[in-house]
Amino acid sequence: MSNALPHWQLKELYPSLDSQELKADLQKIKNNVAALKELEFPPCPGSVEELAADLTKMIKMEEELADPVEAIGVYCHALITTDSYNSDAAKIESSLSGAMVALGLLNVRYLKWLAAVPEKLWNEFWTSDASNDLKDFKFALNEERDNASHLLSEKEEELAARLEQCGTHAWAKMQGLITSRATAEFTYKGETKRLPLTALRAYQTDSDPDVRLNAQKTEESAWKKIEDQVAACLNGVKGSANTMAKARGYSSALEQSLRISRLDDETFSALWDAMERSFPLFRRYFVSKAKKLGLPKLRWCDLDAPVGDSSRNYSIEDCQAFLYRHFESFSPELRDLAKRAFDNNWIDAEPRDGKRGGAFCMPVRKLEESRILANYACNFDSVNCLAHELGHAFHNYCMKGLPMKQRKCPMTLAETASIMDEMIVSESALKEAQSKEEELYILESAIASTSGVIVDIASRFLFEKEVMELRLESELTAKELCAIMEKAQKATFGDGLDENCLGPYMWTWKPHYYFSGFNFYNYPYAFGRLFAMALYSLYRKEGAAFVPKYMDFLRSAGQASPRELAARFGYDITRAEFWDNSLSVVENWVNRYEEL
Ligand SMILES: [Zn+2]
């Protein structure tokens, strides 16, 4: 059997960059954009029949306009991410930006048209037979109407879009430049080197506690030198976010973010309550980890310190066999999907020069398939990572055949299937562990990543909330930002961490604080993780009967709020009982971790 790591196959999408098929699609996009300039929207409909005809036409037009842009976009992205030297693909990809702007402006006009439909006619429509063929679009269309109510005038929207380029985006770009170019001198094993701060951070996974502390201290003194510049960037981004949220008629940037995430206040407070209730469990884990590392108390720099050992080698064939076996026990359809992904070369697994790091999965709607990029390293973490991405591919598979409008899934639900797969893998690997050290290693990786998404994310949320509120009054200094960060970390990590060794500079380099389109890019991760863990726990209770419900849930993830969707399957996510399912998983893990 060959040990070569697979590359993905893209031929089914386009034969090549200079193929007739791709050229024809580029021409189609060009024609579409030209035609859009002349496009007249229909007048405001006067009857339910007219409204049905207009909506049907616009939904069809949206798909037709998006199809070639999406297909070429996906193809170029696949070529560039596996070969950053491919300048031809980069050129074609950047030529799509004109079409993207035109489609964005068209969307504003469409939303304005939709919002102008009188409320009375709108309500009449949904109770009439005229809406029969459009019932499945009801949620998406209502959401669009609600979004439209927060739009500014067409002129203001255009001005805001242009100013964003030289305002928020420019601040974010500056933050990226400053932080990616910052370096510091670091001495490791007698050798002194100047390192980018990202490379320095990797020493926080070193097994020597002094190396870890030294790496953090060195990083902090580098941040100190540029803290005022980075603070100026954050003040710029958060100041604009407050201004825009107010202009759009939201009570706060947090309210705006919750609406985008499709969370109502009651669901959010149930989530927050579950997070708070989980803190004592994670604090037990931090205390136990400190003990295992021989430290009196865990410090910020020890959070990623290695515990346990897994020297087991997973060839790509081992990985396939492992995944097929455990996916099969969950659902044959999940197994078949994974098999199809390997057999038909949907996966690009080999790390190589010019290929980007990390992993992702992207849907290829044109083929109703997915493509997965990974950098396979023949260890357990790589198996887990492929399981995660195959979860995304499974979600895409469950949405097969749906129109675009019904596939738009909020970030809160986008990770359900991927984390479910991670749960299947880690629970199976724990059962198959060949030594206590290996069991400890798997548990450490599961608890550490979950605590990052719950305890650290909670501190990031508290930090951002306070910053947004104070920013309404005035700018904040770097010293104030560090103090707010430490206060937030104390509130969530509690006595699990040494309060004199926290991470005050986390706001400088986490890019999430600088995204212009989405504020509070933190709690959706916590929601996604706890929600998927609760579902896994319910699967364990309900057995095979759970699986068809779950697949149906994934298929409808774009068609209702998480709360409504869960209710359809009999779960009330505004109640603590639902979230207790995820906490019980954490509790089992921590109990065993303490024993080992
Ligand atoms: Zn993911």
Strand order of the biggest β-sheet:
3-5-4
SSE-based structural type = mainly alpha
Q: Tell me the radius of gyration.
A: 25 Å
Ions and ligands: zinc ion
Largest sheet: 3 strands, mixed
Count of DSSP-assigned helices: 24
Q: What's the shape?
A: globular
Strand percentage: under 5%
Series of secondary-structure elements, N-terminal to C-terminal: HHHHHHHHEEHHHHHHEEEHHHHHHHHHH
The multimeric state of the shown protein is single chain
Number of strands: 5
Low-confidence stretches: none
Specify the helix fraction band: 55-70%
Average pLDDT confidence is 93
SSE map:
Layout: H1 20-38, H2 48-82, H3 87-95, H4 97-115, H5 119-127, H6 138-148, H7 154-166, H8 168-181, E1 183-188, E2 191-196, H9 197-201, H10 209-247, H11 253-260, H12 265-293, H13 316-330, H14 332-343, E3 347-348, E4 360-364, E5 369-373, H15 380-398, H16 411-414, H17 416-432, H18 436-471, H19 478-493, H20 506-509, H21 523-542, H22 546-555, H23 562-568, H24 576-595
Helix pairs in contact: 1-2, 1-4, 2-3, 2-4, 2-5, 4-6, 7-8, 8-10, 12-18, 12-24, 13-14, 13-17, 14-15, 15-17, 17-18, 17-21, 18-19, 18-21, 18-24, 21-24
Residues 388, 392, 415, 418 line the site of zinc ion.
